[in-house]
Amino acid sequence: MNRINSAKTMGLTARFSKLLVLLAILFSSCLKEDINTAEGVPSDYMSILDVKTLYKGTDIVLSRENMFGASKITGVVISDELAGNIPKGYLVLQQTSRFRTRGVVLNFGANTTIPFKLGDSLTIKVEGTTLGRRNGVLQINGASLSEISKNAEQVFYEPTQITLKELKNNFDNYESTLVKVAHVDALTPNVPVAGENEIRELVGEKATLHVESTATFADKVLPINASYVGIPLWNNVTAEGTEGAKQFLWLRNLAGVSDESGALYPNFPETFEDGDAVMYASGYAATKNGNLKTGLYTLTNAFLGGEANDRAISGKYSLRLNQNSTTDSWCTMNFDLDYGASKITLWAGSYGASADLGSTWRVEYSQDGGSIWYQLGQDILTVSKDKKQFTFLTSIKGKVRFRIGKVGVGASTTNNQNGRFNMDDFAVYRNPTDDGTGVIVHPTYSDLFSWQFGSPISVGNEAASNATFAVTGITTPVLTRGFGVNASTIGGGFGSNAKDVLENGNPAQLISTKAIAISQKAYFQIVFNTLPSRTVSLSAIDLKIRRSGAGGRNHAWYYSINDTEFKPTGAGALFYEGTGTGQDMPTNYIYNTPELQNLPGGTKITLRMYIWGITNFNSGSFAIGLNANGNTTPVLRVGGKIIP
């Protein structure tokens, strides 16, 4: 019995051993077929990021062994040899790898003509070359031009925007890459940019801007304040390493100077950190009036938020404008700046909550204490929750104030974004050519055409009215109305009130907002053409308005030179709620609207005055005028220049 059991045990052991051998063979074959892809075949390329980490303070010859099987690098040329502000023989290559951007200098020698240019994408064999520092600059020496292949042209990197403090503290990371430092002051402005010039940011950190005397832009005058795009390089005239070396920002080319302006006004930027308690009260009260660091402000549908989703740029608080509003929301300066303005900057984004959509906003300025507002640039739709810095360049002379507002377009949807808007660090820069007297000098102009309704006295409900005066060189301008308003009777004027039906026959909305006025075509309109061989520039619109209690309270001028696309003339909406026989409005200056200047012969020009703030249909009155019977004083005038 024991022998039988022993035999059975030996048989089982033998069969189990055979099974183990079979499994081992199968497993081995599986291993041979399933190669570890994490190890893979060594790449022939090493990132610039990794190549630079091979340098440990002494020269190293690059080889396949220390480059883990690689022999080449790739990148895009960011140096501009044609501009002349890079050491002779230098080619600066930049690459982004694993979300980090690094650059390196390839030195071919001062007597070498480099056949590659800014924006070329290159592959370079660096096996056998030497990586080390020369006069402080980390560079690769010994590469051959014959071992370089061009992959593409005109591949351009956006510069990395950083502060001077960040550049100073992490210079090695930004060495040989393209960077931008924004809105920094020159310590010695108004001198040639050639040489070494110190620049300084608001917090006091400094850097040295370097331009060779042989650069094509060496005689460029150093601005008071500007933004610069350049390549950071160490400079050491006594040794090879960085000990004792200076940090230089080599300006890449003339295009690297932008956003030129005068000096920042005292106490700006407005950071919304130091203000009266009412400005921080929760909720979007219709209006809040109070002092901030830079002066007295009015907040409309807004407050200063300090939550994480407000994502302040500096400090705790940023300005937040409400969502879903049907009316515009504003942060308005109630004080003037005496030296005009050359630049406005601010950081803006949508509110950080995930459900908030973007919003449309604008910057406006006033030079008459806030009676009439002119828009800077165009409306901007901002959807990013990470704030970005926006820059507005201008050349305003005389006393000026600003307001930043979000356009009220109603309920926020994906097709009608009206989420909460955040803004921080609002800055205004002086106009360096303003003498501070506060005198506003407008260009000279004369009337191009005008209307008067006193002789003969108008009924007011005429379908159209030809200009009663027009210069030679244009067709007779014609004044009409849009579909959204009726012609109404008012002697000595050109009258209107709101129509209660749309063009498609559906009921109309009361025209309470500009958006409704635009969509329902509630406007007065002027159309004329320039004649051949004539050039026309428009400078100003002067207008007299008569309204009743239910008539429109707001109006704004738009224009078109292609008969389809209408744009703001540059002035914001004007609010007027007086009644009586008519009131002259502040002059609407449009000489700062580029598309309305130097219009050639054959151009069709349309001016539209949108009307809103109307409370009734088919009654009330909003009219141009009035003229008393026999009075011929113009009540609508458009001024400018015509050549010849």
From TrEMBL:
Keyword hit for Signal: yes
Signal sequence annotation: 1-33
Coiled-coil annotated residue ranges, if any: none
InterPro entries: DUF5689
Record carries keyword Signal: yes
Pfam families, A to Z: DUF5689
Domain DUF5689 stretches: 45-231
PROSITE patterns: PROKAR_LIPOPROTEIN
Keywords annotated in UniProt: Signal
This protein's name: DUF5689 domain-containing protein
Organism from which the protein derives: Pedobacter xixiisoli
Lineage: Bacteria, Pseudomonadati, Bacteroidota, Sphingobacteriia, Sphingobacteriales
